[in-house]
Amino acid sequence: MSSITTRFLSLHPGVLFLFTIMVGFNWYGDDHPSREIITSIVNTIGTVGLLIWFYAICEKSVAVLRKKKKELKIMKTYKIAPAAVLISFIALMMVGFVDPLDVATESDLQRGEAFTYKRIVFGILTVTAIGVLLMYRNTLKLLSSAETGKEQSFSDYYKSFLLLFFLPWIAVWFIQPRVKKI
Questions:
Q1: Is 28 helix (H, G, I), strand (E, B) or coil?
Q2: N or C, where is the chain less crowded by C-beta within 10 Å?
């Protein structure tokens, strides 16, 4: 594992809590352009921090499973989901700075609705959502499997999954100590 992933595994849950808050940060107020830029920077820092944390958990779990001479199918593909989330997050941020009229087709202009822009955003959001769900599942499956030394089914880690999905700012307080134990 690299030094950055090792550092993320040793972080206090409070720091990870801050990353979860930063992902959803939105600076409400006047329409000054700096508000959007600062919001984007804070969101990016939070997202990248959590992606590194999830990746670090997977890397450590894979290392533990290999020491135990266990090989799971998921150990070959767990890197795809964080990469998809990162790429789609960056694409979503870039699309946020695009004027819908710049990508409008002639039929969009006739209807007065930016369907093309909406389709692009919907596609990126779909990739992001699927990537996040797979990343959560992969991370928790690998962590749970590393803790027990055998492949775990969804029924073995669904509570952690639901907590991470609905209350990520609380889940980090329960997941990080588990990571440090393995």
A1: coil
A2: N
Task: Please answer whether residues 103 and 117 qualify as being in contact, where contact means their C-beta atoms are separated by less than 8 angstroms.
Answer: yes
Query: Which residues, 6 or more positions from 79, have their beta carbon under 8 angstroms from its beta carbon?
Result: 55, 58
20, 97, 116, 142 from 94: Cα distances, Å? 21, 6, 16, 32
Kindly give the parts of the chain with pLDDT less than 70.
1, 29-30, 33
Using alpha carbons, list the distances in angstroms from residue 118 to 58, 63, 99, 108: 34, 42, 11, 11
Dihedral angle of Cα 71, 73, 79, 84, to the nearest 10 degrees:
-170
pTM (2 decimals)? 0.86
d(CA 145, CA 167): 22
66-86 per-position pLDDT tens digit: 999 998 999 989 999 999 998
Return the closest-CA partner of residue 49 out of 89, 25, 22. Answer: 22
From CA 155, how far away is CA 152, in angstroms rounded? 8
CA distance linking residue 87 with residue 83, whole number of Å: 6
CA gyration radius for the chain? 19
Position 50: which residue type? L
Give the pLDDT confidence score for residue 1 in this predicted structure.
60
How many residues appear in the chain? 182
Question: Contact 181/61 with Cβ under 8 angstroms?
Answer: no
